[in-house]
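User: My advisor, Dr. K., asked me to get a structural model of this assembly before our group meeting. I'm new to this, so sorry if the format is off. These are the inputs:
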Amino acid sequence: MSIIINLDKILEKRGMKSNELAEIIGITTANLSILKTGKAKAVRFSTLEAICKELDCQPGDILEYQAS
Amino acid sequence: MKSNSLHILKGLLYVSFIISLLTALGSLGIAAYIAFIGDMNFDESNFSFLFPIQTNKAAISLFLLGFALYSAIGLIVYLMLKIIRSFEKGNLFTNYQIAGFNLIGQLIIWLTILQSAAEFILSLVFKSRIEFKLEVSGFWLLIALGAFFIVLSKVFLQAKKLKEENELAI
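Assistant: The format is fine. Below is the predicted structure of the whole assembly, which you can bring to the meeting.
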């Protein structure tokens, strides 16, 4: 897929672990893992909003388009 | 997924399954009886109104045809029962249901075609005349029913893809 998820990099910058973020934003660690590995087919606005709010970033920081 | 209508449908299918199984076994039993023991008086037998049966071989082939027909109907009903059981477990749009509906549809269509072909051949052999029936009920209705089940399997396939997509929306 040509949409890259940079969640790992941002989590590293913020010094936060995946399971912590999953717990805070109210999704399962399995679903967060699906999102991080790029297997997700869609991201809900509510999830994106919760991630951006918690990590204090913009959607563009998390999602990146790379021409294949 | 439990509902009254599913419960009633399951009951009806159970009855149909038992009737078709008993009819199939009965046909096989009569065929075996004629083949190994009996020497039937075909002029007075109850089934001679279908075709003028005069030999043991003709009677055996007719009852074996009945056995094959009712066995196939039993198989179709059994598949339907299995699918309803999977609905009751709460599973929806599974590969089993998709393949099951497709198989049921194909079995109904092939069974209808083969039954009509058998009737045509039997009337040709026993009555020495060619019969064509162009009626709305019967043949075409069953073909439509078979096609409906095949379409249903395609709908379930699409629904499965949508379900997977929905499950992967985070």
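One thing worth pointing out at the meeting: Residues 31 and 60 of chain B are 5 Å apart (CA to CA).

User: Perfect, thanks a lot.
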